[in-house]
Design a protein that fits this description.
The chain is mainly beta. It folds into two domains: 1-30, no CATH class; 31-41 and 60-403, 6 Propeller (Neuraminidase). It has helices at 11-21, 23-29, 238-241, 400-403; strands spanning 67-73, 90-99, 102-110, 120-126, 136-137, 160-170, 173-182, 192-199, 204-213, 222-223, 229-233, 244-248, 256-260, 270-277, 283-289, 295-301, 312-317, 324-327, 333-337, 347-352, 358-365, 370-378, 381-388, 392-399. A four-stranded antiparallel sheet has the order 1-24-23-22.
Amino acid sequence: MQLPPIVRLSATLLLSLTATCGSSQASAVERPDPVKNPESPLMLAGDWVPADPSKIDFAHLPRVPSKHAVVSDVARKRDGEKFPKRSGGVNQHNYLTHFDGRFWAMWSDGPGIEDRVGQRVKYAVSQDGLTWSEPKFLSPIPPNSAPDSKHYNTRTDQGFRYIARGFWQRDGELLALASLDEAAGFFGKSLELRAFRFNKATDAWDDAGLVYKDAINNFPPLKLRTGNWMMSRRRHDYKTAGVEFLVGGVKSLDQWESYPVFGTSSELKAEEPDWWILPDGNLSALFRDNARSGYLYRSFSTDDGRTWSKPVRTNFPDATSKLSGLRLSDGRYVLVSNSNPKKRDPLTLAVSRDGLVFDMLVYLVGDRHIDYPHVIEHDGSLFIAFAGGKQSVEVLQVSLADLDQVTMPSKPNTSASP
């Protein structure tokens, strides 16, 4: 049934329509718009999308060729020793950038399970994104949390941890962001976001100081049309306070204003947001839902991050995992995530022409636990960092030319399909 364009469907009704009539018809009825229709849940569409997107046969999505590299793997090797699964430590929170002619990777490296006392940040460099240097420590030992501390490798507020938060290229310098807090839970009351500056003369990282108190970002800042930088913020009490966005960072590293996204703790249990700038200059933010709805939530800002629309559950499935999106140099958008709502397997890549509705979804890598992606574009390729079993830092190189050759099926791709 086609409805006149003047009819405005509620989010609940449109989801029902999607379930009964299929995503392509829902797309024809109502598409999202940050100004005219911010409440639309439509985010995934195409003849290949089944009425229930969670029923997609994720293991048999179209595939794109890729090159693969392992940057670090604590399950295989740490200081020359071999460890059984899960005892060698953690490699997690992976980030990439390209700066001064080299690729840079950073990640959290800690003992035992992720985010325990003593966790630090490591980094490695590469000329081609596939052959990497030996990892080195980027951050110092957290306060009172050295390997000989009685609190090392425990969860307690008597010890601290660093968590990798991404590279920030600002005014010709390369900064590395890391949060620091007590390692008892998520997060400690001393939570703060700090920066380290790469010193080319010494080939080392210098402490650049505090960026913002009571804050952990998810990805490094992006520059808005206003000239300001923006990044997400979670406070130590974000589970009740909700997610915010920090805007500023121009006059100094620690000059920011924080703006809340109302509804991120009541409409969903928002985690690890990502965002991008739409073609019209407005902003779209996506949220992982720790209430396990199995779908991503979306919110829009039409005033450069100062106010946000009420988060709406989209029809884009999700495994309650971190996601990473990017606007490409040709204007398209890509989203790397664990789109299978049942488990963090496989890692998939979605493509959109407008940053609002994605009509392509391809299989990247799987048949194992894979999560925490970060995607960048360089010289005609996507470079995607991810964690394998929370113990390895790995990178895929995907040629955009190869991606352009992928064709989606002409009928719904479900697990029941022949």
